[in-house]
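Hypothesis: this fold can be encoded by more than one sequence.
Test: take the C-alpha coordinates below, design a sequence, compare later.
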Protein backbone atom coordinates (compact mmCIF):
# COMPACT_ATOMS: atom_id res chain seq x y z
CA UNK A 1 0.00 0.00 0.00
CA UNK A 2 2.91 2.34 0.80
CA UNK A 3 4.44 1.64 -2.58
CA UNK A 4 1.08 2.27 -4.30
CA UNK A 5 0.68 5.58 -2.43
CA UNK A 6 4.20 6.63 -3.36
CA UNK A 7 3.60 5.78 -7.02
CA UNK A 8 0.31 7.69 -7.10
CA UNK A 9 2.02 10.73 -5.49
CA UNK A 10 4.87 10.61 -8.00
CA UNK A 11 2.47 10.42 -10.91
CA UNK A 12 0.51 13.41 -9.55
CA UNK A 13 3.71 15.42 -9.06
CA UNK A 14 4.87 14.67 -12.60
CA UNK A 15 1.48 15.65 -13.94
CA UNK A 16 1.58 18.98 -12.12
CA UNK A 17 5.15 19.58 -13.33
CA UNK A 18 4.10 18.86 -16.90
CA UNK A 19 1.26 21.37 -16.62
CA UNK A 20 3.63 23.99 -15.17
CA UNK A 21 6.14 23.41 -17.99
CA UNK A 22 3.38 23.71 -20.57
CA UNK A 23 2.31 27.02 -19.04
CA UNK A 24 5.93 28.27 -19.02
CA UNK A 25 6.47 27.54 -22.72
CA UNK A 26 6.85 30.48 -25.12
CA UNK A 27 3.56 31.77 -26.54
CA UNK A 28 2.52 30.87 -30.03
CA UNK A 29 3.94 32.98 -32.92
CA UNK A 30 0.57 34.70 -33.34
CA UNK A 31 0.66 35.84 -29.71
CA UNK A 32 4.19 37.17 -30.13
CA UNK A 33 3.14 39.16 -33.19
CA UNK A 34 0.19 40.68 -31.33
CA UNK A 35 2.43 41.67 -28.42
CA UNK A 36 5.02 43.31 -30.72
CA UNK A 37 2.30 45.25 -32.56
CA UNK A 38 0.93 46.55 -29.26
CA UNK A 39 4.38 47.87 -28.35
CA UNK A 40 4.93 49.56 -31.75
CA UNK A 41 2.65 52.63 -32.02
CA UNK A 42 3.44 53.13 -35.72
CA UNK A 43 3.54 50.69 -38.62
CA UNK A 44 6.86 50.64 -40.49
CA UNK A 45 6.79 52.97 -43.50
CA UNK A 46 9.34 53.93 -46.15
CA UNK A 47 8.16 56.41 -48.79
CA UNK A 48 9.83 58.75 -51.26
CA UNK A 49 8.11 60.84 -53.95
CA UNK A 50 9.21 63.56 -56.37
CA UNK A 51 7.04 66.21 -58.03
CA UNK A 52 7.28 68.73 -60.88
CA UNK A 53 4.99 71.14 -62.68
CA UNK A 54 4.96 74.09 -65.08
CA UNK A 55 2.77 76.96 -66.28
CA UNK A 56 3.46 78.66 -69.63
CA UNK A 57 1.68 81.70 -71.14
CA UNK A 58 2.24 83.09 -74.64
CA UNK A 59 0.71 85.86 -76.73
CA UNK A 60 -0.33 89.02 -74.91
CA UNK A 61 0.82 87.48 -71.64
CA UNK A 62 4.30 86.02 -71.84
CA UNK A 63 5.41 84.20 -68.73
CA UNK A 64 6.45 80.83 -67.43
CA UNK A 65 6.84 79.18 -64.03
CA UNK A 66 8.38 75.91 -62.88
CA UNK A 67 7.95 74.08 -59.60
CA UNK A 68 9.68 71.00 -58.23
CA UNK A 69 9.82 69.15 -54.95
CA UNK A 70 10.47 65.94 -53.07
CA UNK A 71 9.08 64.26 -49.95
CA UNK A 72 10.70 61.46 -47.94
CA UNK A 73 9.45 59.63 -44.81
CA UNK A 74 10.64 56.65 -42.83
CA UNK A 75 8.91 55.13 -39.77
CA UNK A 76 10.29 52.41 -37.56
CA UNK A 77 8.30 51.62 -34.42
CA UNK A 78 8.38 54.62 -32.10
CA UNK A 79 10.54 56.70 -34.46
CA UNK A 80 9.57 58.74 -37.53
CA UNK A 81 11.79 60.93 -39.73
CA UNK A 82 10.61 63.11 -42.61
CA UNK A 83 12.18 65.51 -45.11
CA UNK A 84 10.52 67.70 -47.73
CA UNK A 85 11.57 70.43 -50.18
CA UNK A 86 9.75 72.61 -52.72
CA UNK A 87 11.10 75.14 -55.22
CA UNK A 88 9.29 77.67 -57.42
CA UNK A 89 10.80 79.85 -60.14
CA UNK A 90 9.12 81.98 -62.77
CA UNK A 91 9.77 84.80 -65.23
CA UNK A 92 7.52 87.20 -67.13
CA UNK A 93 7.86 89.64 -70.02
CA UNK A 94 6.52 92.88 -68.56
CA UNK A 95 4.90 95.46 -70.89
CA UNK A 96 7.70 97.62 -72.28
CA UNK A 97 9.30 98.71 -75.53
CA UNK A 98 11.60 95.68 -75.33
CA UNK A 99 9.45 92.59 -75.84
CA UNK A 100 12.33 90.36 -74.73
CA UNK A 101 12.73 91.99 -71.30
CA UNK A 102 11.97 88.98 -69.11
CA UNK A 103 12.35 89.50 -65.35
CA UNK A 104 12.05 87.18 -62.37
CA UNK A 105 8.56 87.19 -60.87
CA UNK A 106 8.67 84.06 -58.65
CA UNK A 107 11.70 82.80 -56.77
CA UNK A 108 11.44 80.83 -53.52
CA UNK A 109 12.52 77.65 -51.80
CA UNK A 110 11.11 75.89 -48.73
CA UNK A 111 12.59 72.86 -46.95
CA UNK A 112 11.84 71.04 -43.72
CA UNK A 113 13.27 68.22 -41.58
CA UNK A 114 11.26 66.59 -38.78
CA UNK A 115 11.68 63.85 -36.18
CA UNK A 116 8.78 62.36 -34.16
CA UNK A 117 8.98 60.03 -31.17
CA UNK A 118 5.64 58.27 -30.68
CA UNK A 119 4.73 57.70 -27.07
CA UNK A 120 1.50 55.91 -28.03
CA UNK A 121 -0.54 55.57 -31.21
CA UNK A 122 -2.12 58.95 -30.44
CA UNK A 123 0.70 60.90 -28.77
CA UNK A 124 4.15 62.02 -29.94
CA UNK A 125 6.94 64.48 -29.22
CA UNK A 126 8.58 66.20 -32.19
CA UNK A 127 11.56 68.32 -33.21
CA UNK A 128 11.74 70.11 -36.57
CA UNK A 129 13.93 72.49 -38.56
CA UNK A 130 12.80 74.56 -41.58
CA UNK A 131 14.44 76.87 -44.13
CA UNK A 132 12.80 79.45 -46.41
CA UNK A 133 14.39 81.58 -49.13
CA UNK A 134 12.08 84.16 -50.72
CA UNK A 135 13.69 87.45 -51.80
CA UNK A 136 10.40 88.82 -53.14
CA UNK A 137 9.11 88.58 -49.55
CA UNK A 138 12.32 90.28 -48.37
CA UNK A 139 13.75 87.05 -46.91
CA UNK A 140 17.29 86.14 -47.84
CA UNK A 141 17.16 83.39 -45.21
CA UNK A 142 14.56 82.27 -42.70
CA UNK A 143 15.55 79.47 -40.32
CA UNK A 144 13.09 77.90 -37.87
CA UNK A 145 13.55 75.45 -35.01
CA UNK A 146 10.38 73.91 -33.60
CA UNK A 147 9.63 71.50 -30.76
CA UNK A 148 6.42 70.34 -29.16
CA UNK A 149 3.73 67.77 -28.53
CA UNK A 150 1.42 66.10 -31.07
CA UNK A 151 -1.98 64.63 -30.25
CA UNK A 152 -4.12 62.66 -32.71
CA UNK A 153 -7.82 63.29 -32.11
CA UNK A 154 -8.51 60.18 -34.14
CA UNK A 155 -6.33 58.04 -36.38
CA UNK A 156 -7.70 55.42 -38.74
CA UNK A 157 -6.24 53.72 -41.79
CA UNK A 158 -7.61 56.37 -44.15
CA UNK A 159 -8.72 59.20 -41.88
CA UNK A 160 -6.78 61.34 -39.41
CA UNK A 161 -7.13 64.59 -37.46
CA UNK A 162 -4.49 65.99 -35.11
CA UNK A 163 -3.15 69.05 -33.30
CA UNK A 164 0.32 70.22 -32.31
CA UNK A 165 1.32 72.60 -29.54
CA UNK A 166 4.83 73.86 -28.97
CA UNK A 167 7.57 76.46 -29.43
CA UNK A 168 9.07 78.09 -32.52
CA UNK A 169 12.29 80.10 -32.81
CA UNK A 170 12.68 81.97 -36.10
CA UNK A 171 15.87 83.60 -37.33
CA UNK A 172 15.33 86.04 -40.21
CA UNK A 173 18.06 87.46 -42.41
CA UNK A 174 16.35 90.04 -44.61
CA UNK A 175 17.47 90.75 -48.16
CA UNK A 176 19.97 93.64 -47.75
CA UNK A 177 19.18 94.89 -51.27
CA UNK A 178 15.54 95.41 -50.39
CA UNK A 179 15.37 96.65 -46.82
CA UNK A 180 15.92 100.20 -45.62
CA UNK A 181 15.18 101.85 -42.30
CA UNK A 182 12.37 104.42 -42.75
CA UNK A 183 14.23 106.77 -40.37
CA UNK A 184 17.13 107.00 -42.81
CA UNK A 185 15.11 106.92 -46.03
CA UNK A 186 14.94 110.73 -46.12
CA UNK A 187 18.55 111.30 -45.03
CA UNK A 188 20.34 113.10 -47.92
CA UNK A 189 23.57 111.23 -47.18
CA UNK A 190 21.69 107.97 -47.81
CA UNK A 191 20.09 109.11 -51.07
CA UNK A 192 21.77 107.75 -54.25
CA UNK A 193 20.82 111.00 -55.97
CA UNK A 194 23.06 112.77 -53.45
CA UNK A 195 26.01 110.47 -54.10
CA UNK A 196 25.24 107.48 -51.86
CA UNK A 197 26.00 104.06 -53.41
CA UNK A 198 23.12 102.48 -55.32
CA UNK A 199 23.72 99.21 -53.47
CA UNK A 200 22.12 99.53 -50.02
CA UNK A 201 24.67 97.13 -48.52
CA UNK A 202 27.51 99.46 -49.62
CA UNK A 203 26.10 102.56 -47.94
CA UNK A 204 27.40 103.90 -44.59
CA UNK A 205 26.34 102.04 -41.44
CA UNK A 206 23.95 104.84 -40.42
CA UNK A 207 22.06 104.32 -43.69
CA UNK A 208 21.51 100.61 -43.17
CA UNK A 209 18.74 98.93 -41.23
CA UNK A 210 19.31 95.87 -39.07
CA UNK A 211 18.88 92.99 -41.51
CA UNK A 212 18.47 90.23 -38.91
CA UNK A 213 16.02 89.38 -36.17
CA UNK A 214 15.15 86.47 -33.86
CA UNK A 215 11.53 85.78 -32.95
CA UNK A 216 10.37 83.50 -30.12
CA UNK A 217 6.81 82.30 -30.70
CA UNK A 218 4.17 79.94 -29.39
CA UNK A 219 3.06 77.50 -32.10
CA UNK A 220 -0.33 75.86 -32.67
CA UNK A 221 -1.06 73.57 -35.61
CA UNK A 222 -4.26 71.81 -36.72
CA UNK A 223 -4.10 69.12 -39.39
CA UNK A 224 -6.57 66.94 -41.29
CA UNK A 225 -5.81 64.03 -43.64
CA UNK A 226 -8.45 62.05 -45.54
CA UNK A 227 -7.95 59.33 -48.13
CA UNK A 228 -11.43 59.80 -49.60
CA UNK A 229 -11.04 56.65 -51.68
CA UNK A 230 -8.19 54.64 -53.19
CA UNK A 231 -7.69 57.29 -55.91
CA UNK A 232 -8.37 60.63 -54.15
CA UNK A 233 -6.48 62.07 -51.17
CA UNK A 234 -7.11 65.40 -49.35
CA UNK A 235 -4.68 66.98 -46.88
CA UNK A 236 -4.86 70.37 -45.14
CA UNK A 237 -3.31 72.19 -42.19
CA UNK A 238 -3.27 75.57 -40.43
CA UNK A 239 -0.28 76.84 -38.43
CA UNK A 240 -0.36 79.87 -36.11
CA UNK A 241 2.80 81.49 -34.73
CA UNK A 242 2.31 84.11 -32.00
CA UNK A 243 5.32 86.28 -31.20
CA UNK A 244 5.85 86.09 -27.44
CA UNK A 245 7.62 89.48 -27.40
CA UNK A 246 5.44 91.41 -29.87
CA UNK A 247 1.82 90.26 -29.74
CA UNK A 248 0.79 92.01 -32.97
CA UNK A 249 3.42 90.00 -34.88
CA UNK A 250 1.15 87.11 -35.85
CA UNK A 251 2.02 84.66 -38.63
CA UNK A 252 -0.47 82.23 -40.18
CA UNK A 253 0.43 79.48 -42.65
CA UNK A 254 -2.30 77.48 -44.38
CA UNK A 255 -2.07 74.84 -47.07
CA UNK A 256 -4.48 72.43 -48.73
CA UNK A 257 -3.72 69.74 -51.29
CA UNK A 258 -5.92 67.46 -53.36
CA UNK A 259 -4.27 64.47 -55.05
CA UNK A 260 -5.73 62.12 -57.61
CA UNK A 261 -4.12 58.93 -58.88
CA UNK A 262 -3.65 58.77 -62.64
CA UNK A 263 -2.10 55.34 -62.84
CA UNK A 264 -0.13 53.20 -60.38
CA UNK A 265 2.52 55.47 -58.76
CA UNK A 266 1.68 58.61 -60.76
CA UNK A 267 -0.58 61.29 -59.24
CA UNK A 268 -1.68 64.80 -60.09
CA UNK A 269 -1.83 67.34 -57.24
CA UNK A 270 -3.59 70.70 -56.93
CA UNK A 271 -2.09 72.62 -53.99
CA UNK A 272 -2.89 75.99 -52.43
CA UNK A 273 -0.60 77.70 -49.91
CA UNK A 274 -1.29 80.90 -47.95
CA UNK A 275 1.32 82.81 -45.93
CA UNK A 276 0.20 85.72 -43.72
CA UNK A 277 2.65 87.90 -41.79
CA UNK A 278 1.11 90.76 -39.84
CA UNK A 279 4.54 92.47 -39.55
CA UNK A 280 6.24 91.80 -42.90
CA UNK A 281 9.74 92.87 -43.96
CA UNK A 282 10.29 96.41 -45.17
CA UNK A 283 10.84 97.43 -48.78
CA UNK A 284 13.70 99.52 -50.09
CA UNK A 285 11.72 102.75 -49.60
CA UNK A 286 11.02 101.93 -45.95
CA UNK A 287 7.39 100.90 -46.45
CA UNK A 288 6.02 97.49 -45.46
CA UNK A 289 5.55 94.69 -47.95
CA UNK A 290 2.24 92.94 -48.53
CA UNK A 291 1.10 90.94 -45.52
CA UNK A 292 -0.42 88.13 -47.58
CA UNK A 293 1.27 85.76 -50.06
CA UNK A 294 -0.54 82.92 -51.83
CA UNK A 295 0.67 80.21 -54.16
CA UNK A 296 -1.35 77.75 -56.25
CA UNK A 297 0.41 74.95 -58.11
CA UNK A 298 -0.48 71.94 -60.21
CA UNK A 299 2.11 69.17 -60.15
CA UNK A 300 2.68 65.60 -61.20
CA UNK A 301 3.89 63.38 -58.34
CA UNK A 302 5.72 60.11 -58.87
CA UNK A 303 6.17 57.76 -55.91
CA UNK A 304 9.58 56.07 -56.00
CA UNK A 305 9.17 54.04 -52.78
Amino acid sequence: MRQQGWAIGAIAALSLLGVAQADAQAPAPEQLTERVNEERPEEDVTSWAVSAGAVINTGNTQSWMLNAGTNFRIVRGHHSFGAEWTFNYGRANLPSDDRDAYVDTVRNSNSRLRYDFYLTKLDALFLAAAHRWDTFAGLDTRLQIQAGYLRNFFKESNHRSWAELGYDMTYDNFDPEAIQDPDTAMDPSCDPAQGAPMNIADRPAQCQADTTQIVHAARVYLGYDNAINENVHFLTGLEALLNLQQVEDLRLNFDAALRSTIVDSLQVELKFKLLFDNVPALQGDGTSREKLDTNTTISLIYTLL
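The first strand starts at residue 45 and ends at 57. The chain is about 10% helix and 55% strand.
Hypothesis status: open.
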